[in-house]
Amino acid sequence: MSYTRQDVIVSRDCPAVSVPYGSPVTIEKGCEATITQQLGGSYTVMVEGNLYRVEGVDGDALGFEPTEEVNHAPEGPVTAQYVEDCAWSLLATCYDPEIPIDIVNLGLVYSCKVLPAADDRFRIEVQMTLTAPGCGMGTLIADEARGKLQSIHGVDEVKVDLVWDPPWSREMISEPARLQLGLL
Fold this sequence. Notes:
Elements: E1 6-9, E2 14-19, E3 24-27, E4 32-39, E5 42-47, E6 50-55, H1 80-91, E7 109-118, E8 121-128, H2 138-150, E9 155-162, H3 175-181
Parallel strand pairs: 8-9
Antiparallel strand pairs: 1-4, 2-3, 2-6, 4-5, 5-6, 7-8
């Protein structure tokens, strides 16, 4: 869900990550914050002119119910197709904190392979890139993708590699995302 800007007072010291550098920080209790984006289970907030990403588990500090990880369990047997479908769905819930488009529609995910690991168990290998090689949020976005993929029932291992070939370009953005960003 996208979010209309909303001003809040931070109700407790809140862990966050600076955007775009990816450095851990603490937003202090009592600070005024403007929520600029609420997507994929996290918040992007502006405090004193600086952007920060706050994870959904700390949403209570911003006046929201904290979110918890969901264990994705199938109704039937775990299959490679089930795991792949879940993987792509979950990758589409990972967002760059500065751009209100998920990493799949931004064209950042180059591949997502589901490989057998053991009886009814699987391994996922993802190759993804960033909009810019120096992006400090890269590790955070890759870790978020890895964490979400590990929640899929039947997945034993997830490997997310950041790659730079081919280099990302705006042409890799999906048509609906280009329309949303006003690029069409």
